[in-house]
Amino acid sequence: TIRHNMTDKIQELKLIPSNDPRILSTIAPFNDDMLKEFNFKSRAEFSKAMFMAMKKYGGIGLTGNQVGMPFRMFVMGNHLSLNNGEKHSCWNPKISFKSDDEVMMSEGCLTFPYLFLNIKRPRKIQVQYEDDDGKEIVRDFEGMFSRIYQHEYDHTLGITFIEKVSKLKFDMAKKKAEKMYKRELKRAELVKSRQT
């Protein structure tokens, strides 16, 4: 448990492995009664735990099922490079419009460390979601927030970004990811050997 301001205790959320069936499962619509079952008092408390986990793992988006929670929600943003730290907690998210104009961009995913894939997605979207107070929000996203929203929304449907590319492209990216992981492991071992 992480202590926050010495009075609040925030549950520490941990990423589940990519082969866990919850990653590939569609998440049922969320209702507030579900929070008690997992020892959360409010949506805001769960969002705070999600933002803490996202920061810990170095992400800019995180969905409930990535940390094993059956909540149809995700958090995104909270990074200075994204509109000066703008952040969103999106409960029961929907996409009502996608532009025909698409953009190819490299994406990563906390569920698949070191793996980066070029994915084509609509440039602009119009979305609906509930915030931490249960208020319905309707807004347009473009640029990085459009991309993150679509990636995380896919997670709520049990779809991962590896399903958006061919097997050949996935296999090439996987080999590159394995090399990066081995390089990082060697670097960590070197640092550790210098400390002893």
Q: What's the helix and strand layout?
A:
Layout: E1 2-4, E2 8-10, H1 34-37, H2 43-57, E3 61-63, E4 73-77, E5 87-98, E6 102-109, E7 112-122, E8 124-130, E9 136-142, H3 144-156, H4 167-195
Antiparallel strand pairs: 1-2, 3-4, 4-5, 5-8, 6-7, 8-9
Structure description:
The chain has 196 residues and is an alpha+beta fold. It contains 4 helices and 9 strands; from the N terminus they run ββααβββββββαα. The strands form 3 sheets. Strands 3-4-5-8-9 form a 5-stranded antiparallel β-sheet. Strands 1-2 form a two-stranded antiparallel ribbon. A two-stranded antiparallel ribbon has the order 6-7.
In short:
With 196 residues, the chain is α+β, with helices and mostly antiparallel strands.
Characteristics:
two-stranded antiparallel sheet, five-stranded antiparallel sheet, 196 residues
Main beta-sheet strand count, sense and barrel state: 5 strands, antiparallel
Helicity, as a percent range = 25-40%
Radius of gyration: 18 Å
**Helix/strand/pairing category:** alpha+beta
Mean pLDDT: 91
Strand adjacency order, main sheet = 3-4-5-8-9
Shape: globular
Strand content: 25-35%
Number of strands: 9
Oligomerization state: single chain
Q: Can you tell me the residue ranges where pLDDT is under 50 for at least 5 consecutive residues?
A: 1-7
Q: What are the secondary-structure elements, in order, as H or E? A: EEHHEEEEEEEHH
Tally of contiguous helical segments:
4
Distance between the termini: 30 Å
